[in-house]
């Protein structure tokens, strides 16, 4: 078992937020679109990375998550936490000078459920996600696990914005 913690706000805590789902290798247009929407609304940005390979077994009062791998043979929790830290740093560099107050949230479990949980914990006005990955891999992932955007659109009390991705990279 290991632990992971989200990061605090880059500035003052905003009255409203836009929640955006992020992951390594993601098209920058997703974060850019979410940051632009947040800036237009005078809202903050909550960037959420959901680690589907781990489950939360406990939540500490300070926000620290106690994690265990879904696969008992996978003991690379530290590798995933380092990847999340690297992603948070990359987003921070990308948003530097954007004028949007933001924070990074590390979550673990099923992506749509965790985005919904984080959204419910904040005064969220929009949830932003990217469309599925192009190609066969994206289609297979959606066929097996379902569409994150579709599941959010059917369950969230706030609008869900889907940022289209380029058909090929």
From TrEMBL:
<dbReference type="InterPro" id="IPR006016">
    <property type="entry name" value="UspA"/>
</dbReference>
<dbReference type="InterPro" id="IPR014729">
    <property type="entry name" value="Rossmann-like_a/b/a_fold"/>
</dbReference>
<dbReference type="Pfam" id="PF00582">
    <property type="entry name" value="Usp"/>
</dbReference>
<protein>
    <submittedName>
        <fullName>Universal stress protein</fullName>
    </submittedName>
</protein>
<feature type="domain" description="UspA">
    <location>
        <begin position="18"/>
        <end position="164"/>
    </location>
</feature>
């Amino acid at each position: 078992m290991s632990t992971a913690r989200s990061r605090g706000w880059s500035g003052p805590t905003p009255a409203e937020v836009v929640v955006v789902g992020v992951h390594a290798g993601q098209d920058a247009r997703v974060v850019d679109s979410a940051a632009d929407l947040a800036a237009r609304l005078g809202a903050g940005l909550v960037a959420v990375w959901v680690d589907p390979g781990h489950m939360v077994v406990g939540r500490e009062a300070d926000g620290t998550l106690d994690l265990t791998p879904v696969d008992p043979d996978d003991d690379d929790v530290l590798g995933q936490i380092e990847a999340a830290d690297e992603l948070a740093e990359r987003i921070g560099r990308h948003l530097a000078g954007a004028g949007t107050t933001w924070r990074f949230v590390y979550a673990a479990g099923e992506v749509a459920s965790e985005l919904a949980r984080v959204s419910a914990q904040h005064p969220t006005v929009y949830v932003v996600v990217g469309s599925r990955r192009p190609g066969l891999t994206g289609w297979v992932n959606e066929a097996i696990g379902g569409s994150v955007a579709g599941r959010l659109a059917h369950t969230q009390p706030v609008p869900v914005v889907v940022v289209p991705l380029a058909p090929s990279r």
